[in-house]
């Protein structure tokens, strides 16, 4: 089985978010970048398929060379081969088109991407990719089994879960629950050394054009100070929630 | 030239979020002087969209009862083409987020999710949406001819605007699905994190899963959904689907009550979009107080049962 895992390179979850150049660019200074957590859940499941059944695991990223350390980390924790399509990622559709062209030229049984990236939160690349390739798609995936040419995938729905069956190839939108947090792998020295010898290819883009663009960023308005209510005056709290906040 | 809405339904009834989508879509249609047409699936009460400014509904009768993204997408694509729709409005539910990218890729439309307001410009279309998991906003422009706008849950609200509504029950040609549904399990009779007006959430301060009746009792009085912080789900006190935060679920509810949650930046990101936040914590230095509207510094084991009792009395009164 050949698995392709699509990787986003995102600010660490503890990052403070600031903007520069008149609020047109994300301020990367002092920010630590990581594998997008949802992608990492997917990658970990892919490596599980490799360890149990000998799957080949490739990772791919659409973006600039700043993401190379993130892709090296993917190799260090068990991916076999890394690709980077060398073009800045501006919107979901152009990224999906670049990925779709790559997948058409190669052959994969499973394509796994995170449910969404934690920076731009589009949650659109995996679905667009499936639609462009005209294959099945399961987002918010919390369970995945492969049996021959079929896959059974579970997706989280609002207030429950749904189990779906489809033919391979299939696109999966991974999230927490597909593997446990404790299953995530930390690169060890051997993995890091091995990663240096693994193939890492930089590819030219097909020139897919973006159709949307984030032009100006804003930070949320500063919050007014909290109104503290004494612990023994619950009546006052209920009064505030009812009359002032109007939420009960 | 129309504005097309995807009005979600479940068990033959419109879902609550259909009212918000109708309000957003009809407000935009009024502004642009366009028709506002809703597409619903097997909805007996589709005419109720008329309360929120929708004058025409195509209610598709021959689609699967259970949401099937690949099939539903094909219906929307058909209507986008046949009506010449320029804007498609849908919600941020799990189903809508499943559907939207499929429709976008097939119609070469731009898809802008998590939108919090009506477009502030039409040429080029510019909308404000949340990014960085609610830590910031982006103003996003589109140069596409067809634009799909995903409205953030509870971001626009419902606006009553009663108009005559014509519902046309239709059968359309369906494409085959790529997926077969094997099973679905859904808690019934309990508010879900996606559509509850109030969410009651517990953290490590509750000291163990055996104390969760405090959260559940309070939630019951308020008809609220229950949630938890990341450590609580990582330790297995509660299931993953309750985990709220950057890698869990986002919550954009009217009232978010955080009990025994210190307020790590990742957790705050997940709940930022909620309108009013009440924090109960015994540590006055807990970072969550900086992000809260109302706070009680106190022992949850003492405060919460009193709050539950008093709210019960308040609810029976009002």
Describe this structure in words.
Chain A is α/β, with parallel strands linked by helices. Chain A has a single domain (2-217), classed as Rossmann fold, CATH 3.40.50.620. Chain A contains 6 helices and 15 strands. Chain A has helices at residues 37-53, 68-76, 92-105, 125-133, 189-197, 234-244; strands spanning 2-6, 9-11, 19-20, 25-26, 33-35, 56-63, 81-86, 110-114, 136-147, 150-157, 160-167, 170-174, 200-203, 212-218, 227-228. In chain A, the strands form 3 sheets. In chain A, strands 11-10-9-12-8-1-6-7-13 form a 9-stranded mixed β-sheet, with helices on both faces. In chain A, strand 6 (56-63), helix 2 (68-76) and strand 7 (81-86) form a beta-alpha-beta unit. The model of chain A has no long low-confidence stretch (mean pLDDT 97). Chain B has 318 residues and is α/β, with parallel strands linked by helices. Chain B has 2 domains: 2-170, HUPs (Rossmann fold); 198-317, Rossmann fold (3-Layer(aba) Sandwich). Helix content of chain B is 28%, strand content 29%. Chain B is built from 8 helices and 18 strands. In chain B, strand 14, helix 4 (213-222) and strand 15 form a beta-alpha-beta unit. The longest helix of chain B has 18 residues, at 300-317. Chain B starts with a strand and ends with a helix. The mean pLDDT of chain B is 96. Chains A and B meet through helix 3, helix 4, strand 9, strand 10 and strand 11 of A and helix 2, helix 3, strand 7, strand 9 and strand 10 of B. Strand 15 of chain A pairs parallel with strand 18 (294-297) of chain B, so a sheet runs across the interface.
- Whole-number average pLDDT of chain B? 96
The secondary structure category of chain B is: alpha/beta
Major sheet summary line of chain B: 7 strands, parallel
Which CATH first-tier class of the largest domain in chain B would you pick? Alpha Beta
Query: What is the radius of gyration of chain A?
Result: 21 Å
Largest sheet of chain A: 9 strands, mixed
Rounded to the nearest angstrom, the distance between the terminal CA atoms of chain B is 47 Å
Full CATH superfamily name of the largest domain in chain B:
HUPs
Strand order of the largest sheet of chain A: 11-10-9-12-8-1-6-7-13
């Amino acid at each position: 089985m050949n698995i392709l895992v699509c990787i986003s390179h995102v600010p660490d979850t503890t990052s403070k978010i600031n903007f520069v150049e008149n609020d047109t660019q994300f301020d990367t200074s002092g920010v630590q970048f990581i594998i997008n957590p949802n992608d990492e859940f997917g990658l970990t499941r892919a490596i599980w398929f490799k360890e149990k059944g000998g799957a080949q695991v490739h990772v791919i990223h659409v973006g600039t060379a700043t993401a190379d350390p993130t892709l090296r980390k993917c190799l260090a924790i068990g991916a076999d081969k890394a690709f980077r399509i060398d073009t800045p990622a501006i919107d979901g559709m152009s990224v999906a088109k670049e990925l779709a062209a790559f997948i058409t030229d190669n052959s994969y049984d499973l394509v796994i991407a995170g449910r969404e990236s934690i920076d731009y939160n589009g949650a659109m690349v995996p679905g667009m990719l499936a639609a462009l390739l005209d294959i099945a798609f399961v987002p918010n995936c919390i369970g995945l089994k492969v049996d021959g040419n079929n896959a059974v995938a579970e997706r989280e729905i609002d207030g429950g879960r749904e189990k779906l069956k489809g033919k391979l190839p299939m696109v999966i939108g991974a999230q927490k629950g597909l593997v446990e947090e404790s299953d995530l792998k930390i690169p060890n020295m051997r993995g890091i050394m091995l990663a240096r010898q693994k193939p890492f290819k930089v590819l030219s883009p097909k020139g897919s054009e973006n159709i949307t663009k984030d032009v100006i960023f804003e930070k949320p308005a500063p919050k007014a100070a909290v109104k503290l209510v004494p612990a023994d005056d619950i009546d006052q709290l209920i009064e505030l929630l009812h009359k002032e906040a109007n939420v009960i | 030239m129309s504005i097309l809405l995807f009005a979600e339904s479940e068990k033959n009834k419109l879902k609550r979020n259909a009212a918000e989508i109708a309000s957003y879509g009809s407000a935009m249609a009024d502004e642009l002087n366009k028709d506002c047409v809703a597409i619903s699936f097997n909805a007996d009460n589709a005419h109720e969209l008329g309360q929120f400014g929708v004058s025409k509904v195509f209610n598709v009768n021959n689609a699967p009862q259970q949401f099937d993204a690949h099939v539903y997408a094909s219906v929307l694509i058909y209507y986008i083409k046949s009506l010449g729709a320029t804007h498609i409005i849908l919600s941020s539910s799990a189903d809508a987020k499943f559907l939207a990218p499929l429709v976008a890729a097939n119609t070469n439309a731009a898809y802008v999710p998590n939108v919090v307001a009506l477009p502030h410009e039409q040429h080029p279309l510019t909308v404000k949406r949340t990014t960085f998991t609610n830590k910031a906003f982006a103003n996003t422009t589109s140069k596409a001819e067809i634009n799909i706008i995903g409205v953030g849950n509870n971001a626009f609200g419902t606006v009553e605007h009663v108009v005559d509504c014509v519902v046309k029950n239709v059968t359309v040609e369906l494409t085959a699905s790529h997926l077969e549904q094997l099973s679905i399990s859904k808690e019934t009779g309990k508010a879900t994190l996606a559509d509850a007006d109030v969410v009651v959430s517990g953290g490590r301060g509750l000291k163990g899963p055996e104390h969760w009746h405090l959260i559940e009792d309070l939630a019951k009085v308020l008809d609220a959904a229950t949630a938890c912080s990341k450590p609580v789900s990582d330790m297995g006190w509660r299931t993953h689907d309750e985990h709220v935060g950057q890698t869990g679920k986002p919550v954009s509810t009217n009232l978010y009550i955080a009990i025994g949650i210190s307020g790590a930046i990742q957790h705050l990101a997940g709940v930022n979009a909620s309108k009013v936040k009440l924090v109960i914590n015994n540590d006055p230095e807990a970072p969550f107080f900086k992000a809260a509207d109302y706070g009680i510094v106190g022992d949850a084991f003492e405060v919460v049962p009193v709050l539950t009792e008093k709210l019960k009395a308040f609810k029976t009164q009002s």
